[in-house]
Design brief:
509 residues; alpha/beta; Rossmann fold; N-(1-d-carboxylethyl)-l-norvaline Dehydrogenase, domain 2; Single alpha-helices involved in coiled-coils or other helix-helix interfaces; 3-stranded antiparallel β-sheet; 20 helices; globular; binds 6-phosphogluconic acid
Length: 509
């Protein structure tokens, strides 16, 4: 029988790339972990990596060959983290843990990319059998290893137990400057600072917020790609030239992880061909579904996340490669080099401003969507806290998130980021170049669907009188769907008897 000192603090199930790195991150922070995977080779790989990294003297991982063995190696009440594929595997593992004798006060934390509504269902389903808690993780494999951004949600008691663990392993930010304190290798000391791990809300809230993070990520990436495409096509710039532009942009308001990795990608030369790798990669985008979930949810809630949805569609359209090859030979458009001859520096500055304004709109859409769902679900999400959790560790980390935090600190019930005086001022200042870039790209026949959808969102949102009056009349004409009148109290419905010779108006309620 092992004494409490010999028992492990945390059980870890699922040792794929994310699970393995999260486990090693836990051990860096002094936790003893009992690790299990259905594929026993993964357990052995993990043990070998721990030995290679820390030497044989101070092992903190115990490999397990079964769920029962894992439970037997843990301090009670048990804390077990899952990193298994979203969907059925999560339920499968929970059911096996129940069979293996897990107790009602043991906590199981799902860290996969689960659908938020599944998390709500699971929390209820496992009540009385185990405490099902969830934590959405962003940052990819490097983030998992050296500091991810964590979005925990669920039972508040479970949070009190998990909080010190998550705050230890999460990415850190310097509280004075708001800058990320990065750690890139095990030889570097653990950074001390504000942890990018904060309680998001009741069950489902954390995975919901992570889903919207990914929707914003899709938009952020698509906008960068459009800026690249416009430089490529209208200025005939090489990937290396464009990398230099992004490098410069990364010093200012656009500073972000995604711009940084774009520079590295554009500079990379393919070993086999000696060509820029980006020119060798097939232009057919993949997607795992979280951007799609965000877009579907935005449609369901009625939140106009147009740039996010457009970025999902841009991936779908890119995937129609064979059809596009045929269309390219049939469909006519302007000559792509339409901007040749113009001052490149001016065009590049316009593009910078376009990317910045469109990015503000994409984030405004994401936060607006979270706000609408927060009200619908009664979550009371804290948007300043969410922006803080995204300042380091996650894929959309950017200096810009500090400005978003400040906007919500100025006004916690801000309806839309665009209404914050700072962001309203930024768009007022830079919008001329945004409009100009889109006009230039459009006249040159270069698609910039996300950039222009963001502008349409901005112009629609600031438009006091939209043509929806005409639309309401059309609906009433063919379907007697009724309309409200500007000169009557809101909520009173009217209908015109369009099919009668004398088109009389009737009050419906
Ligand atoms: C993150 C990433 C991560 C993953 C996406 C990619 O925050 O760490 O968003 O979740 O890389 O799922 O999604 P796509 O394959 O759909 O681009």
């Amino acid at each position: 029988m092992q004494t409490d000192d010999q028992l492990c603090d945390i059980g870890f199930i699922g040792l794929g790339v994310m699970g393995k790195n999260l486990t090693l991150n836990l051990t860096d922070n002094g936790y003893r972990v009992a690790a299990f995977d259905l594929d026993h080779n993964k357990v052995n790989d993990l043990l070998a990596q721990e030995a290679a990294e820390r030497g044989e003297q101070d092992p903190r991982i115990e490999g397990c060959l079964s769920f029962t063995e894992l439970l037997g190696k843990l301090k009670a009440p048990h804390l077990i983290v899952l990193s298994v594929p979203a969907g059925a595997p999560v339920d499968d593992v929970c059911d096996k843990l129940i069979d293996a004798g897990i107790s009602a006060d043991d906590i199981v934390v799902d860290t996969g990319n689960s659908l938020w509504t599944d998390t709500i269902t699971r929390e209820k389903h496992y009540q009385g059998k185990l405490i099902f808690f969830a934590t959405a993780v962003s940052g990819g494999e490097v983030g998992a290893r050296f500091g991810p951004s964590l979005m925990p949600s669920g039972d508040p008691y479970a949070w009190t137990r998990i909080k010190p663990v998550w705050q230890a392993i999460a990415a850190k930010v310097d509280p004075q400057t708001g800058k990320a304190l990065e750690r890139h290798s095990i030889d570097e000391p653990l950074p001390q600072g504000e942890a990018c791990a904060d309680y998001i809300g009741p069950a489902g809230a954390g995975h919901y917020v992570k889903m919207v993070h990914n929707g914003i990520e899709y938009a952020d990436m698509q906008l960068i790609c459009e800026a690249y495409h416009i430089m490529r096509e209208t200025l005939a710039m090489t990937p290396a030239d464009i990398a230099q532009v992004f490098k410069q942009w990364n010093q200012g308001v656009l500073n972000s992880y995604l711009i940084g990795i774009t520079v590295e990608v554009l500079e990379h030369i393919d070993d086999d061909t000696g060509m820029p790798l980006v020119d060798i990669i097939l232009d057919r985008a993949g997607q795992k579904g979280t951007g799609l979930w965000t877009a579907v949810n935005a449609l369901q809630v009625g939140s106009p996340a147009t740039t996010i949805a457009q970025s999902v569609f841009a991936r779908s359209l890119s995937a129609m490669k064979d059809e596009r090859i045929i269309a390219a030979s049939i469909l006519k458009g302007p000559e792509p080099k339409a901007l040749a001859g113009e001052d490149a520096t001016v065009i590049i500055q316009r593009l910078h401003d376009a990317l910045y304004c469109a990015k503000i709109c994409a984030y405004a859409q994401g936060f607006q969507l979270m706000n609408m769902t927060s009200i619908e679900q009664g979550w009371e999400l804290d948007f300043a806290a969410i922006a803080k959790v995204w300042r380091a560790g996650c894929i959309i980390r950017a200096s810009f998130l500090l400005s978003i935090t400040q906007a919500y600190e100025r006004n916690e019930s801000l309806q839309n980021l665009l209404l914050d005086p700072y962001f309203a001022g930024q768009i007022a200042e830079y919008q001329h170049n945004w409009r100009h870039s889109i006009a230039d790209a459009t006249m040159a026949g270069i698609p910039c669907s996300a950039m222009s959808s963001a502008l349409a969102y901005y112009d629609s949102y600031r438009c006091e009188n939209l043509p929806a009056n005409l639309l309401q009349a059309q609906r009433d004409f063919f379907g007697a769907h009724t309309f409200e009148r500007k000169d009557q109290t809101s909520g009173k419905k009217f209908h015109v008897n369009w099919s009668e010779a004398k088109r009389t108006m009737v009050k419906v309620n």
